[in-house]
Amino acid sequence: MPNLEHPAYPAANLLHLESLVPCRESQVSMLLSIFGERQQFSFPSIFIYGHTSSGKTYVMQTLLTTLQLPHVFVNCVEYFTSRLLLEEILIQLQSCSSETEQTSPVHCDTFNDFVRLFKQAVASQDLQDQTLYIVLDRAEQLREMEANILPAFLRLQELTDRNVTVVLLSEIVWELFRPNVGCFEPFTLFFPDYSIGHLQKILSQNHPPEYSADFYAAYINILLGVFYMVCRDLKELRHLAALNFSKYCEPVVRGEANERDTRKLWKNIEPHLKKAMQTVYLREISSSQWEHLQHDGGEPGQLKGLSAHTHVELPYYSKFLLIAAYLASYNPVRTDKRFFLKHHGKIRKTNFMKKHEKTSNHLLGPKPFPLDRLLAILYSIVDNRVAPTANIFSQITSLVTLQLLSMVGQNDQLDGPRYKCTVSLDFIRAIAR
């Protein structure tokens, strides 16, 4: 018995839609109830939120396309200003009428112009008899635009007096959107994360035709058993499944095992999945490079310059600043003269130094240091002369923003700001190299 039922849409279309959106039947059913029939006025604005890779964008695109509902779909990251966003909506609205019509350039500077042009576009294309859906993906970007954009979109049905519904897709909750002055409250709908059973069902649908569905489902079960605790992103898991399946099939291809020898297949794939754990989310190497490593039996770290931890593009002096910050964090102040002064003279090893020389500073963690000490070490390790310009100080601020340095205490102290270096020794070695 189908889970999706609605009298306004053909049963065949709903059955096809249900097959395209597995494990999201309850959310789609809720959306169909809100939408109603084509000619009925829907809710003015709908706010859909959930974590990344929870199916928000895919479900909305599939729902509107499968049921052939007139819609406009815009990514707010791509159209990052109000003018670009409004003009793109009007351009897509022009193309809703027919495939042959050429879209003319649209100029829209204010939301008042948008309302006027929107009414003209809807009237010219005979869209009054059915609901038009405007979907704004990554809607959190609207908070960076003018203050009137978000409240106006929420009341677009009222402002235009047309049958239109605005759907906002976001990864953050509505409470972080709501303006201080108040606005029209949208209907909120939450998309929960996929459970391990949902991921198993969705990923198992992509099995290659040359292998049985049970064989591929067993492989997905092994993959989720390894990665589910550290990665629940459907896109990443789908990428990992496609990347490592050939290695899982090797004993079957060579004739050493059949599809039911789960234990032998697990022993073959286990070390390769452990290697893949090092590159989850990072994309340190490409798929072709990973397959090359699998055939050669190498380690991911053997590819020079590909690690996301050790290959960071920083400005020239920022690298020296980071090295100087690491030296200042892990070397005691009393050793600066010995390490960074060319003619420091003879230094006696006191009993205090002998007592503590066996204690590694890396075990004690980074120590805070003042700005003047950082600059003094910088001038010592850079070959050419460096002037203390605003460029140097702005690069220090950038390193703090990138969380490679952290500021300790307040910036308004009389002795100046104090910092800590937060990167590891391997990171510094890679930059120094």
UniProtKB/TrEMBL annotation:
The keyword Transcription does not apply. GO terms for cellular component: nuclear origin of replication recognition complex. Residues 216-283 form the ORC5 lid domain. GO terms for biological process: DNA replication initiation. One of its GO terms (molecular function) is DNA replication origin binding. It is found in: Nucleus. Keywords: ATP-binding, DNA replication, Nucleotide-binding, Nucleus. Residues 21-167 form the Orc1-like AAA ATPase domain. Residues 314-433 form the Origin recognition complex subunit 5 C-terminal domain. Component of the origin recognition complex (ORC) that binds origins of replication. DNA-binding is ATP-dependent. The specific DNA sequences that define origins of replication have not been identified yet. ORC is required to assemble the pre-replication complex necessary to initiate DNA replication. Belongs to the ORC5 family. This is Origin recognition complex subunit 5. It comes from Menura novaehollandiae.
